[in-house]
Amino acid sequence: MDLGLADKRVMITGATRGIGKATAQLFAAEGARVAITYHSGADVAEKLVEDLGGEDRAHAVPLDLADPASIRDAVAAVEEKWGGVDVLVANAQSWVWVDPGQLPPFEDLNTDEWFSLMRANVEGHMLAVQGALRGMRARGWGRIVLLSSVTAELGMPGSEIYGGAKSALHGFVRGLMWTRDGVLANVVAPGGTLTESLQNVDPEIVKRSADRTPSGRLSTPEDVGRVILFLCSEANGNVNGEVVRTAGGS
């Protein structure tokens, strides 16, 4: 199947590892030009640019979800390099990577910290969409995917902030789906995924999680990336405003 992605201009936030990196590699394999954003680790981002074909085919841009100016500058940098953004994958997230079950009770959380996390994980994505959407409308074609999590629907202990932020994206996309002008917007909600963040998790816990999944395994980043790839392609003619789980049936 021809996905119609050759030379499409793709911007993927948070693309130096995990799902973002796998998705960037999949788009590049389809002939797309891929802009990857990073918050830290410029050397890692530049190495990925080389792996994706060098500056003619890929571009690394710094982005801080908590800084509105940084988000606007990142979108502008991609538009300046390639003349526009055809596809936006909002994958970056701001979170303290600890076991949510080890967090203090919600009533004891530091409000300054969780206010900033909510703003980055919700408003940060909204600003990225706002920056890319005008050009999509003008050209009469665009694809947007926002990365959520099954935690937004299923919940888990200690997930109040993370789940709340991801749930907000579900409501946001239900408004975006009315954009028309050839623009389709969707949410992808992964379940447990075998990214670098699981490297320090007890293997027995990972195995139990896989055993509880109807498919019998956790997703790979490529599993999630292929769903994103389809939703952002010309092969997707009318899937719009949906929350698509990639969680093996969970």
List the quaternary state of the chains.
single chain
Q: Could you state the order of secondary-structure elements as H and E?
A: EHEHEHEHEHHEHHE
- Helix count, DSSP H or I runs of 4 or more residues: 8
Integer average pLDDT: 89
| Proportion in β-strands | 5-15%
Separation of termini? 28 Å
Q: Biggest sheet, in brief?
A: 7 strands, parallel
Structural class: alpha/beta
Which residues form runs of ≥5 with pLDDT under 50? none
Helix content: 40-55%
Q: How many E strands? A: 7
Question: Numbering strands along the chain, what is their spatial order in the largest sheet?
Answer: 3-2-1-4-5-6-7
State the shape. Answer: globular
Describe the protein in words.
Helices cover 43% and strands 15% of the residues. The longest helix is centred in the middle third of the chain and has 29 residues, at 111-139. The protein has a 7-stranded parallel beta sheet, sandwiched between helices. The model has no long low-confidence stretch (mean pLDDT 89). The chain is an alpha/beta fold. It has 8 helices and 7 strands.
